[in-house]
Amino acid sequence: MATTISLVVFRGDPVDWAMYRHTALHVQYADGEDMILHVTGAHPFFEYMPMDNHPKDLNLTIVASILISTLPDWITKSMIQNACAATPVRNDPRHTDWNCQNWVGEALTRLVAIGCVTETERKSAVSQMVDACLEAGDETTDL
C-alpha cells in the first residue's frame, strides 16, 4: 500500500457554519498507520496537534475527504511531519481571522516545497476545501 495524503473537513461545532468547519491533513502511511495533522483551539490559543492513529469516532463528523496525492516512496514520515510542524501557528494580534483552514493551506505550501505534493494538487485541494466549508448546513442568509 502506498502512502496517501488527504484533506479532511469536519462538521462545524458548535454550529455548522463555514468559519467553524474544522480542517486537517490526513496521512495514511504505507505501513498502515495514519495520522491527523492539524491545529486546534481558537485565536490566540491555536496549537499544532498531530494525532497518531486518530480515533475512528472522528470519522462521524467528516463531511468531506479530499484525496490530494499518492506520495512517492522516497517521502518519509519524518519529512511530512517536520514540514507540518514547521508551519507557523499564527496567534499574534495581526491574524485574528486566521484558523485551521489557513493552516492547512500553509502546510500544503510547505509540502509542495519538499516535493511531497505538486502546486496543482495543492491548489485543487484548497479549492475543494473552500467549497466543502461553504456547504455548511446551518448557515443562513437574510436578504
Task: Outline the structure in words.
There is one protein chain. With about 140 residues, the protein is an alpha+beta fold. The chain has one domain (about 5-135). It has helices at about 75-85, 100-115, 120-135, and strands spanning about 5-10, 20-30, 35, 40, 45-50, 50, 60-70. Helix 1 (about 75-85) crosses helix 2 and helix 2 packs antiparallel against helix 3 (about 120-135). It is globular. The chain starts with a strand and ends in a 9-residue tail after the last helix. The model has no long low-confidence stretch (mean pLDDT about 90). InterPro entries: DUF6540.
Average pLDDT, all residues: 92
Q: Looking at the structure, what is the overall shape? A: globular
Percent helix among the residues?
25-40%
Q: What is the string of SSEs from the N terminus onward?
A: EEEEEEEHHH
Distance between the termini: 51 Å
The Rg value, from CA coordinates, equals 15 Å
Low-confidence spans: none
Count of beta strands: 7
Helix and strand composition category = alpha+beta
What amount of the residues lies in strands? 15-25%
Major beta sheet summary: 5 strands, antiparallel
Q: Helical region count?
A: 3
- Counting structural domains, the number is 1
Major beta sheet, strand line-up: 6-3-2-1-7
